[in-house]
Design brief:
Layout lengths: L11 H23 L5 H8 L3 H10 L2 H5 L2 H12 L1 H22 L2 H4 L5 H4 L8 H32 L4 H27 L5 H37 L9 H8 L2 H15 L2 H15 L3 H29 L2 H21 L5 H25 L5 H30 L10 H28 L11
Helix pairs in contact: 1-9, 1-10, 1-11, 3-9, 3-18, 5-6, 5-9, 5-18, 6-9, 6-11, 9-10, 9-18, 10-11, 10-15, 10-17, 13-17, 13-18, 13-19, 14-15, 14-18, 15-17, 16-17, 16-19, 18-19
The chain binds ligand LKAUPR5Q.
Organism: Carboxylicivirga marina
Family: Belongs to the major facilitator superfamily.
Membrane topology: Multi-pass membrane protein
Length: about 450
C-alpha cells in the first residue's frame, strides 16, 4: 500500500509560520499604502501639493486595478500560473513602485537629478516630483493589490477547514500593524517636513525587504506542491474562461459582497488617508498627535479582527456581522461630521466596524466560490473595490478644496465627512441584501467556517 506523507500544511507550526512570513509581506504593503497620510501637510509645505494633488496621489494607487483591471487580471493569472510566479511578479511591481515614489520625493531628484528636466517638460500643471510619485504610486498599486489576492489564496491553500477565518483575521492584523507603524513613524521621521524624503524612503526599503520574504515563502510553497502532487497524483490544470467572471457576477450573493466591499472600504481607507489632517484641523492637534490618534485604529483592529475571525470560524453569523459593522461605520461618520464628540469615541466605533466587516467578508468567499476560482473572485472584488479607492480620495480632495478655497492650513471637513457617511449608508443596504439573498439561496453565509 502506498504511504501517504503528511503534507506541510498539516502541521500547525508550519501553517502559523507561513502566516508570519506572508503577514510580513502584507505589513510592508500596508506600511507604504498608509505612510503618506500623516505627511499630507508636509507635502503641502515642501512640494506645494494641494488637497487635489494629494487626493490624486492617493487615488493613483487604484488606477491600474480599476482602469486596467489589473487586480482581476492578477487573480486570473494567479489561478492559471500559480502562487509562486504570480506572487513574485506582483511583489516585484510593488517594490519598483515604492522605490520610484521614493525617488520622486528625493532631494537628489528635486535638485535636478536624473529625469527631472524631462518630467518638467510636459503637463506643467503637475510638478516633476508629483509626476514621478504618481508613476510610483501606479506601480505600487498594481503590485500591492494583486499581492493581497496572492496572500489570500496562500491562506486558503494552507488553512482551508483549519481556522481559516482566524488566519484571515490575523492576515488583516498584519496589514494593520503596517498601517500602525506608518502612522507612528512617518511624522516622527519627517519632522514637520525637514526629513520628508527619508520618511518615504524608509517605506520603500521595507517593501524591498518584503520581496526577500516572499522569495523565502516560495521555497515552502514549492515543497507543499510537490507533497500535494505526490499524495493525490493530481495535476492542477486551470483554464481561464470568461464564464468564470460572468458566473461570479451573476451570483447575487457575490455581487452584494463585492458592492459592500467597495462602499465599505471607500468610506474607510480614503477617510484614513485624510484622518490625521482632519484631526489636526478640527481638534487642533499637531501632526504627531493626530498621527498617534489615527494609529489607535489599526491597533484596535489588529487585536479584534482575529478575535472576530475566531468567533466566525466557530459560530458563523457573517452576514449579521457585516450589517452590524456597516451600521457602526455610518454612526461613526455622522459623529465626526456633525458633532464635537471627542474623536476617540467615533474612532473606537470605527475600529469595531473595521475589525468586524473584514473578519466576516473575506473568508465568506469560500462559501460562494470553488478554491480553484478563488484568485479570480478576490481579484475581481479588488478591482471593483479599487474603483471606490480611486474615486473617493479624489472626491474628498475636490470637496475639501471646494469648501476651503485658497489651500488654507486649516480646513473645514464637514462636507467631506458627510460624503463618507452617505457611502456608508449605501454599504449598509448591500449588507442587508446579502443577508436576504443568503436566506433565500442557502449559501451558508451565516454558518460557522470550521469543519466539524
Ligand atoms: N485592497 C486593499 C486596500 C489596501 C489598504 N491598505 C493597503 N491596501 C484592501 O481592501 N484590504 C483589505 C483590508 O481589510 O485591509
Amino acid at each position: 500500500m502506498e504511504q501517504i506523507k503528511k503534507a506541510l500544511n498539516e502541521s500547525p507550526a508550519m501553517r502559523w509560520g507561513i502566516l508570519l512570513l506572508v503577514g510580513f509581506v502584507l505589513s510592508v504593503n500596508y506600511y507604504f499604502y498608509d505612510a503618506f497620510s500623516t505627511l499630507k501637510d508636509d507635502m503641502r509645505t515642501v512640494f506645494g501639493f494641494t488637497g487635489t494633488d494629494y487626493g490624486l496621489f492617493s487615488a493613483f494607487y487604484s488606477v491600474p486595478n480599476t482602469f486596467l483591471m489589473m487586480a482581476v487580471i492578477g487573480g486570473i493569472i494567479l489561478d492559471k500560473i500559480g502562487i509562486r510566479r504570480t506572487g513574485f511578479l506582483f511583489v516585484f511591481f510593488m517594490t519598483i513602485g515604492a522605490l520610484l515614489t521614493g525617488y520622486g520625493a528625493s532631494d537628489y531628484f528635486n535638485n535636478g537629478g536624473f529625469g527631472y528636466e524631462f518630467m518638467g517638460s510636459f503637463l506643467p500643471r503637475f510638478s516633476p516630483e508629483l509626476k514621478v510619485m504618481l508613476l510610483g504610486r501606479f506601480f505600487f498599486g498594481l503590485g500591492a493589490e494583486t499581492t493581497i489576492v496572492v496572500v489570500s489564496k496562500i491562506l486558503v491553500k494552507w488553512f482551508k477547514g483549519k481556522d481559516l477565518a482566524l488566519a484571515f483575521g490575523l492576515k488583516v492584523g498584519f496589514g494593520r500593524l503596517g498601517s500602525f507603524a506608518a502612522l507612528r513613524l512617518s511624522p516622527l521621521i519627517s519632522n514637520e517636513g525637514t526629513n520628508l524624503s527619508s520618511a518615504i524612503w524608509l517605506g520603500a526599503i521595507l517593501v524591498s525587504i518584503g520581496l526577500l520574504a516572499f522569495l523565502v515563502y516560495m521555497l515552502f510553497d514549492a515543497k507543499l506542491d510537490s507533497q500535494i502532487q505526490e499524495n493525490t497524483s493530481e495535476k492542477s490544470e486551470n483554464k481561464f474562461s470568461f464564464k468564470d467572471i460572468t458566473g461570479l457576477i451573476s451570483n447575487r450573493a457575490y455581487l452584494y459582497i463585492a458592492l459592500l466591499c467597495v462602499t465599505f472600504y471607500s468610506a474607510v481607507f480614503p477617510f484614513i488617508q485624510y484622518a490625521p489632517d482632519f484631526f489636526s484641523d478640527k481638534f487642533g492637534l499637531t501632526s504627531v498627535e493626530s498621527g498617534n490618534l489615527t494609529s489607535y485604529l489599526p491597533v484596535g483592529t489588529l487585536i479584534f479582527t482575529p478575535v472576530f475571525g475566531a468567533l466566525i470560524d466557530r459560530k458563523g453569523k457573517s452576514a449579521s456581522a457585516m450589517i452590524f459593522g456597516a451600521i457602526t461605520l455610518l454612526v461613526t461618520h455622522l459623529l465626526f461630521a456633525l458633532t464635537n464628540t471627542p474623536p476617540i469615541i467615533p474612532l473606537i466605533l470605527l475600529g469595531i466596524s473595521f475589525a468586524l466587516v473584514p473578519a466576516a467578508m473575506w473568508p465568506t468567499m469560500v462559501k460562494l466560490v470553488d478554491e480553484n476560482k478563488i484568485g479570480t473572485a478576490y481579484g475581481l472584488m479588488y478591482s471593483i473595490q479599487n474603483l471606490g479607492l480611486f474615486i473617493f480620495p479624489l472626491l474628498a480632495g475636490t470637496i475639501l478644496d471646494a469648501t476651503n478655497p485658497g489651500n488654507p492650513a486649516v480646513s473645514d471637513y464637514t462636507a467631506t465627512i458627510l460624503m463618507f457617511a452617505a457611502v456608508s449608508l449605501i454599504g449598509l443596504i448591500f449588507a442587508l441584501l446579502l443577508k436576504y439573498e443568503d436566506k433565500k439561496k442557502h449559501f451558508g453565509v451565516e454558518l460557522p467556517l470550521n469543519k466539524k
